């Protein structure tokens, strides 16, 4: 371990975030299926901004105020009162360019607000569709890093852990990593990297199970593919914007 | 997933235990380095009972009341006011047989009391030195299982996760496992199983790092070896006893 390098930690669940001091860190919010993948896609396709909100009524209210598109699902269906869902395929440039997307998700939004409340120095969102932008930024930023997995109702999940592992495998030589969760994530990623989709399927990952029951295999494949929406998603003034 | 089988879950940190209903479950407390390894060793070597306590003053008080041996470390040294440490090698049969050991540890004891407070149906402790006894019991008991890792100050650690994975690899056909943390643990164990010690070392596992700095490599090797103290450690009436 090189003490002269900046630290990198992985937090596998929002319920563990309080264990870490993130006041000097860039926090990467990871909600692979599908919040942060959809955020990257919308911003890459020219959305003006994405406003992440926790609850459906708030989504409706802010959607009206901002003349934005309201989106969000509950139990695999568009939530009552909202217009669109959580799939990245709903946000092509022809639809979303120049618009404000007000998106309500459960796990990812909760964690993002938690990181903001805990005083994170900077917050970005990470997903396979924008993994290179995330890694390039983390290498260049010269700040400690917290890879924060949104998990599923606070239970550790495979896909967010895999993304943390993928980032670590790319950038680890730039950081000092004294964090077993990071080792664990990278070990699993190395096992899975030849075919992330088949790995998820073979492990019967709980979220794979849920989404494939909704017929969303193509969403899963997209959300496990690198760099199809390679933009940095930066959180400032309660909004995510492309940088 | 076979819905007719009983469930098995893995909880990677005490901070996640509240996410699970353990009222019908056998909870396996896992604190590989070194609490649960030392507990198995003392009971295997004939200790009458092991009383796990959280704090040093309580350890001293109960030690006096029970005419027991007081043991516990803080920062790698025997805690002030106690007689012995946390190493399994301190408890050969010639010393511990017939005696009461009052043991204070931080992570493992905290989790054990948390599981008891949360209404666990049964509590046992698990470690590589007694892995076969644990697995045999879990297979025969016909109850849901929670593999509960003590972690390190609530941060996920490699060695407890490895033990959960080792148990899962042995007993998974008897259970329905819809739990990404269990898949993660088993995946890591499969990577590590040919040489757990070298895996810990190569990953620079944080606890390996701490203990090897105290010159405790032999403790680590023992605590990663199967069945040298193959006894079931059962928690009842605030004590751990051999069954």
Q: Key features?
A:
alpha/beta; homodimer; 20% strand; 243 residues; four-stranded mixed beta sheet
Descriptive report:
By secondary structure, chain A is an alpha/beta fold. Chain A is built from 10 helices and 11 strands. The first copy, chain A, has a 7-stranded mixed β-sheet with strand order 9-1-8-2-7-10-11, with helices on both faces. In chain A, strand 10 and strand 11 form a beta hairpin. In chain A, helix 5 (131-141) crosses helix 6 and helix 6 packs across helix 7 (180-192). Chain A is globular, with a radius of gyration of 17 Å. The first copy, chain A, starts with 5 loop residues before the first strand and ends with a strand. The model of chain A has no long low-confidence stretch (mean pLDDT 95). At the A-B interface, helix 7 and helix 9 of A face helix 7 and helix 9 of B.
Short description:
Chain A is of the alpha/beta class and 243 residues long.
Largest sheet of chain A: 7 strands, mixed
Roughly how much helix do the residues of chain A carry, as a percent range? 25-40%
Largest interface: A-B, 30 and 30 residues
Strand order of the biggest β-sheet of chain A: 9-1-8-2-7-10-11
Based on helices, strands and strand pairing, what is the structural class of chain A?
Answer: alpha/beta
Give me the number of helical elements of chain A: 10
Give the oligomeric state: homodimer
Proportion in β-strands of chain A = 15-25%
The arrangement of helices and strands of chain A along the chain is EEHEHEEHEHEHEHEHHHHEE
Residue windows where pLDDT falls under 50 for at least 5 positions of chain A? none
Alpha-carbon distance between the termini of chain A? 32 Å
Return Rg of chain A in Å: 17 Å
């Amino acid at each position: 371990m090189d003490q002269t390098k900046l630290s990198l930690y992985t937090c596998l669940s929002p319920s563990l975030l309080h264990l870490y001091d993130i006041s000097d860190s860039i926090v990467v919010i990871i909600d692979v299926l599908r919040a942060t993948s959809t955020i990257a896609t919308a911003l890459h396709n020219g959305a003006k901004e994405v406003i992440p909100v926790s609850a459906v009524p708030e989504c409706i209210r802010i959607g009206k105020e901002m003349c934005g598109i309201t989106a969000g699902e509950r139990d695999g269906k568009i939530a009552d009162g909202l217009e669109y869902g959580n799939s990245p395929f709903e946000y092509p440039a022809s639809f979303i360019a120049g618009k404000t997307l007000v998106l309500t998700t459960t796990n990812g939004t909760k964690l993002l607000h938690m990181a903001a409340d805990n005083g994170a120095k900077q917050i970005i969102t990470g997903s396979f569709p924008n993994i290179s932008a995330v890694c390039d930024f983390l290498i260049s930023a010269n700040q400690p890093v917290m890879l924060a997995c949104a998990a599923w109702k606070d239970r550790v999940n495979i896909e967010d852990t895999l993304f943390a592992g993928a980032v670590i495998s790319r950038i680890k030589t730039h950081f000092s990593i004294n964090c077993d969760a990071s080792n664990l994530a990278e070990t699993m990623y190395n096992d899975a990297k030849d075919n992330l989709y088949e790995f998820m399927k073979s492990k019967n990952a709980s979220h794979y199970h849920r989404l494939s029951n909704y017929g969303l295999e193509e969403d899963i494949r997209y959300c496990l593919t690198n760099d199809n929406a390679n933009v940095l998603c930066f959180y400032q003034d309660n909004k995510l914007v492309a940088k």
